[in-house]
Amino acid sequence: MLGAFGRAFKTPDLRRKLLFTLAVIVIYRAGTFVPAPGVDYGNVQQCIAMGGTTGGIYDMVNLFSGGALLQLSIFALGVMPYITASIIVQLLRVVIPRFQELHEEGGQGQQKLTQYTRYLTMGLALLNATTIISLARSGALLGNCPLPVIPDDSIIMILVIIVTLTAGTGLIMWLGEQITEKGVGNGMSLLIFTSIAASFPSALGQIFKTQGWGVFAAILGIGLLVIIAVVYVEQSQRRIPVQYAKRMVGRRTIGGTTTYIPLKVNMAGVIPVIFSSSLLMLPGLVGQFATPKDGTPPPEWVNWINSNLVKGDHPLYMILYFLLIVGFAYFYVSITFNPQEVSDNMKKYGGFIPGIRAGRPTERYLGYVLNRITLPGSLYLGIVALIPLIALVMFNANQNFPFGGTSLLIVVGVGLDTIKQIDAQLQQRHYEGLLR
């Protein structure tokens, strides 16, 4: 494989794409350390050193931003507004017929949906920036740290910070699109990959520092096994054979070929994990806003939420998390793969599944197979997502434990897709690919 990487850099066109991608990634990582105007960087670092964090959904945002959120840098929002906007636009296809029509129009319709995603991303970035600055001003963002992270909290300065964070999200979105257009791989996915991978050394270093050599080596071994399992499941698919009948078009005979419909075991990807995490963080946010600011004890229901549904180490939280992931996996697969549409397209072009009649029987058969393979896929997602929570209990780690959950699924998935794209470009130039 190292030789294949060498051949990739020897190919002028591919070398230019790889270097461009690396340059954009360096710019993105550098931006995560540039503090926003008006932020006292020294106080922020002291609050982080004291262990200040809100926990919950903001830990996920901080993970996806490569640590930029808690640094209150210009890239503090990271890619989360874009991810949320993309999911919302995709879900709106079920609710708004116009969105579904644009999706079916091909390239021109996809460009229109992409434009809607950009607008929604900026709107969500403005909303998220306002929320984060409000939490930072009150000290809640960094675990009620007593040090002021925004010394000058005048309206003008707050507006400048909000505009800066929103503009940072726009710049990140533009950088991701530049990678997709001029580099290698999907730009936004690679930026997420970079942000998550950047947190691995510090997470592993913290485990080594607090737990010692024995636990550190055991965790590395478990991590290797989990990565192998994730790669195996992510590459697994059920191939449904499809036969196309021969037909005459003019003087030519077309059709008569055999192909297959690949149904991945994990068709939902990492989306159910993100949905479930976000939903379980809502009670904690409600409890945080319901906590009195004058120092009086919070209501009993707030204490119950803080004890059972915030930290993630309670059995009730784990059970709800697992069940939500399974449910969202079935929901997301049902809206992204339409057996009726696939059946109609097959019938339109003279295709059929051997032993299954075209039309309604094909639709029922595809739905049956889809439900069967979604079950192990959803259980797999739930188990992998619980690994950081189990590590939180067993090793006193945090929820950004590197070998499990959202982080590992994204890193492995994006890594595999990027290698496949490089491999395809090498094979186009008559070189042996990265994957043998």
Automatic annotation (TrEMBL):
Its main location: membrane. Pfam families: SecY. Keywords: Cell membrane, Membrane, Protein transport, Translocation, Transmembrane, Transmembrane helix, Transport. The chain crosses the membrane at residues 18-36, 68-95, 116-135, 155-176, 188-207, 213-233, 254-275, 316-337, 373-395. One of its GO terms (biological process) is protein targeting. It is a multi-pass membrane protein. It is found in: Cell membrane; Membrane. GO terms for cellular component: plasma membrane. InterPro entries: SecY, SecY/SEC61-alpha, SecY_CS, SecY_dom_sf. Belongs to the SecY/SEC61-alpha family. Component of the Sec protein translocase complex. Heterotrimer consisting of SecY, SecE and SecG subunits. The heterotrimers can form oligomers, although 1 heterotrimer is thought to be able to translocate proteins. Interacts with the ribosome. Interacts with SecDF, and other proteins may be involved. Interacts with SecA. The central subunit of the protein translocation channel SecYEG. Consists of two halves formed by TMs 1-5 and 6-10. These two domains form a lateral gate at the front which open onto the bilayer between TMs 2 and 7, and are clamped together by SecE at the back. The channel is closed by both a pore ring composed of hydrophobic SecY resides and a short helix (helix 2A) on the extracellular side of the membrane which forms a plug. The plug probably moves laterally to allow the channel to open. The ring and the pore may move independently. HAMAP family: SecY. PANTHER family: SECY/SEC61-ALPHA FAMILY MEMBER. This is Protein translocase subunit SecY.
